[in-house]
């Protein structure tokens, strides 16, 4: 390109003609990543148009940041939509019912603008049975529905989908906690009886069934009958693993598992005990993901199991396995990349069980590729964390939950500031961090200074003053999501982020020291943010008890319930 | 919220608000050495978290505790949404714990009574039905239960037998069929006074 030539529109269209739209669209259609596509759309008008016409998948991280009309207006050819709704703390009962994030208004627009829609993936949205029925009736090509942590529907709605959507290949319903019956491919979270005969027939029909996840009402012998009909399984979620099997059933079951040569993901195992776990061993050779969240294993049981899982990359367990169980993991699973340890009895302070710093340490010595951890424990030390991140400097996700709020280092009685300081100094690739324990502003100074790749930060019962939050807002250039509860951060902290919030997806602050005045100032200064305050019977006048701030081009919500005030 | 490191740990002193009928002074945790034994005892007698929390220093902790609709008069004063576990997972684990405690050899549940210094444990399997159970409770704790009616609960006494079910809700003993009660009961509590009447009339 000759810089001396005048950049008039004639020259520009001449250049564009050298590269016809169809070619550009074809090239751009090969782009998968949303970030790449966003970048491409900013190059020029021609590229913007080519990108929007060639895009078939869209990801919307906050359903209120944009309207379905705007989306459909820009992207005419979408086949797959991913939408996220409620703020994450709604998982922990901090958001009242009927807050919003209903899919229906989106479906109405999609029925008109995307009749060929094939996939819908929703997280934390409200989906009623009527919406599911609407979906089944209006979209003839519909193939894949994934509902993660959604609410509002029952199996009646799912039944309509199952009955009407002829091209359905994926139905993924996870962690929604609904209590009813149905038959299909992933019902691990449903708690009632499944019509087993119908399920068996269905599995027989799908010769190449890859994913089968049943709920805990399916017994071991029923599982055996399903397994023999699904030799190509790569992902299996078993039902109950507690059953008195007779002399014939046990070897049959072993053979059935032995036939599962392609299994890479295993979950379920409700009530599994030492008695029947061994039937799994032959199926574990290629296992990369083992989800033992629903099986309260003891340390020996886990130890014996993981010996057979040398390829394991991801492991989710309950803390019933104890530090010894984790030591066994460290010895057997050197390729482990992700570890999640959940508390079996989170509300029972009398428990002396669970895991401590030593289990985590052991894993860090044995599994040097560890980069994702979620760890619930009742005690931790600064020294242990420092050693852990020295062993495993590649952490991208570090979520540590010391369950007693505000608990110090149990050996030195000091705050846990140095622990998280070590994390952010050593783990330069850190994207997600959740902190806990007794923390002063120093922790946040460290985060602001060192966590240059941090995108998500979760804070609870921490900090000493506004300075803490200010450090984070001023220091972390890539911050997208900040969620804070029960911290002494007030208006000064909130307003220090004035320049920042439009570059973030959202901010959540609850039970902090922010007032209505502070929120009003923020709303006034930044009209492109929605500043929502959730009213509470117990909040005193002037206090803003729950604040949710997010950027949006959609303006204030039109569907806000009475307890949500948009300032 | 949260007054920094100073009175902060004390504000969220879960130990102090725990509804656990231990003998005064016998707490395994060192968290509440400054609490008066009598105050702790008195606190244990109150049913509602609101009452209990008015004695707490921190208004904010009380707000958080009041809002925990899950826990009602539970044995633990839980902070809403903490630890950050999804409620779906929480329900699964609670169910598992109950099942673990029941075996063919006995369904043991703890029984507490307002005002009594320690708890008892009984095996529900031993009783043939509600009248059997209630008579046994009357004997154990030396009190009288009133007449049960579906409409009005237990009338004629200042005591009402209640139980915590699998979902964490507090229910009046007698409302559901005996078999259902046996499998869903996690612990029993004999309530006394106005709270008892309140529970009966709420039906």
What is the C-alpha radius of gyration of chain B, as a whole number of Å? 18 Å
User: Mind telling me the C-alpha Rg of chain A?
Assistant: 26 Å
**Residue-averaged pLDDT of chain A, rounded?**
87
* Low confidence ranges of chain A: 178-184, 187-192
Helix content of chain A: 25-40%
Report the total helices of chain A. Answer: 20
What best-fitting shape of chain A do the alpha-carbon axes yield?
globular
- Oligomerization state: heterodimer
- Could you tell me how far the N terminus lies from the C terminus of chain B, measured between alpha carbons in angstroms? 37 Å
Mean pLDDT of chain B: 64
Roughly how many Å apart are the termini of chain A? 49 Å
Q: Widest sheet of chain A: strand order?
A: 6-7-8-9-10-11-12-13-14-15-16-17-19-18-20
What is the 3D shape of chain B?
globular
Please give the most extensive interface between any two protein chains, plus how many residues each contributes.
A-B, 49 and 41 residues
State the total count of DSSP E strands of chain A.
20
Instruction: Please count the helical segments of chain B.
Output: 9
Q: Which bin fits the share of residues in helices of chain B?
A: 25-40%
Strand content of chain B: 15-25%
């Amino acid at each position: 390109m000759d810089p001396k030539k005048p950049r008039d529109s004639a020259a520009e269209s001449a250049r564009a003609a050298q590269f016809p739209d169809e070619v550009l669209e074809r090239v751009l259609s090969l782009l998968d990543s949303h970030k790449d596509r966003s970048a491409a759309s900013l190059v020029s008008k021609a590229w913007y148009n080519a990108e929007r016409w060639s895009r078939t998948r869209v990801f919307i991280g906050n359903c209120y940041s944009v309207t379905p009309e705007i989306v459909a207006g820009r992207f005419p050819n979408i086949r797959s939509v991913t939408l996220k709704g409620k703020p994450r703390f709604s998982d922990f009962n901090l958001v009242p019912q009927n807050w919003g994030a209903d899919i229906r208004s989106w479906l109405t627009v999609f029925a008109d603008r995307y009749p060929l829609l094939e996939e819908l993936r929703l997280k934390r949205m409200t989906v009623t049975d009527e919406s599911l029925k609407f979906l089944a009736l209006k979209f003839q090509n519909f193939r894949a529905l994934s509902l993660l942590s959604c609410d509002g529907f029952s199996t009646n709605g799912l039944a309509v989908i199952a009955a009407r959507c002829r091209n359905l290949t994926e139905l993924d319903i996870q962690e929604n906690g609904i209590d009813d019956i149905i038959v299909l491919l992933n019902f691990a979270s449903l708690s009632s009886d499944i019509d087993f005969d119908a399920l068996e027939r269905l599995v027989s029909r799908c010769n190449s069934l890859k994913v089968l996840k049943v709920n805990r009402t399916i017994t071991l012998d029923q599982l055996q009958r399903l397994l023999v009909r699904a030799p190509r399984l790569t992902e299996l979620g078993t039902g109950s693993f507690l059953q008195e099997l007779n002399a014939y059933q046990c070897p049959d079951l072993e053979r059935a598992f032995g036939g599962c040569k392609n299994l890479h993901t295993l979950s379920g195992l409700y009530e599994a005990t030492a008695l029947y776990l061994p039937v799994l061993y032959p199926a574990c050779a290629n296992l990369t993901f083992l989800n033992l969240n629903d099986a309260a294993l003891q340390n020996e049981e886990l130890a014996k199991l993981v010996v057979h899982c040398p390829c394991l990359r991801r492991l989710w367990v309950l803390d019933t396995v104890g530090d010894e169980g984790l030591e066994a993991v460290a010895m057997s699973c050197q390729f482990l990349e992700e570890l999640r340890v959940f508390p079996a009895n989170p509300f029972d302070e009398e428990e002396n069980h669970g895991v401590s710093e030593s289990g985590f340490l052991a894993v860090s010595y044995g599994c040097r590729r560890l980069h994702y951890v979620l760890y619930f424990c009742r005690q931790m030390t600064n020294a242990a964390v420092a050693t852990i991140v020295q062993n495993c400097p590649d952490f991208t996700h570090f979520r540590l939950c010391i369950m007693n709020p505000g608990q110090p280092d149990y050996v030195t009685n000091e705050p846990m500031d140095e622990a998280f300081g070590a994390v952010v100094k050593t783990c330069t690739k850190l994207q997600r961090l959740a902190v806990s324990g007794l923390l002063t502003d120093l922790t946040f100074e460290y985060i602001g200074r060192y966590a240059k790749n941090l995108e998500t930060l979760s804070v609870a019962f921490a900090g000493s003053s506004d300075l803490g939050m200010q450090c984070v807002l001023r220091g972390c250039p890539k911050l997208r999501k900040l969620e804070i509860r029960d911290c002494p951060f007030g208006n000064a902290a909130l307003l220090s982020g004035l320049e920042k919030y439009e570059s973030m997806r959202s901010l959540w602050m609850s039970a902090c020291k922010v007032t209505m005045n502070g929120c009003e100032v923020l709303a006034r200064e930044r009209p492109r943010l929605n500043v929502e305050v959730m009213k509470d019977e117990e909040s005193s006048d002037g206090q803003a008890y729950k604040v949710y701030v997010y950027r949006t081009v959609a303006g204030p919500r039109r569907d806000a319930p009475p307890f949500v005030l948009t300032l | 919220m949260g007054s920094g490191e100073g009175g902060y740990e004390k504000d969220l002193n879960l130990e102090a608000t725990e509804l656990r009928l231990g003998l005064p002074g016998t707490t395994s945790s060192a968290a509440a050495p400054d609490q008066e034994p009598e105050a702790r005892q008195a606190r244990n007698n109150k049913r509602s978290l609101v009452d209990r929390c008015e004695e707490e220093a921190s208004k904010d902790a009380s707000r958080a505790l009041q809002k925990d609709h899950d826990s009602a008069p539970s044995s633990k004063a839980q902070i809403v949404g903490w630890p950050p576990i999804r409620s779906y997972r929480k329900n699964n684990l609670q169910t598992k714990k109950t099942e673990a405690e029941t075996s063919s050899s006995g369904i043991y549940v703890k029984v507490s009574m307002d005002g009594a210094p320690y708890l008892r444990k009984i095996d529900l399997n031993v009783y043939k039905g509600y009248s059997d159970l209630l008579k046994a409770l009357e004997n154990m704790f030396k009190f009288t239960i009133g007449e049960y009616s579906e409409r009005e609960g237990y009338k004629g006494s200042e005591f009402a037998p209640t139980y915590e079910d699998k979902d964490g809700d507090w229910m009046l003993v007698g409302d559901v069929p005996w078999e259902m009660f046996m499998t869903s009961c996690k612990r029993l509590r004999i309530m006394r006074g106005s709270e008892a009447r309140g529970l009966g009339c709420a039906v």
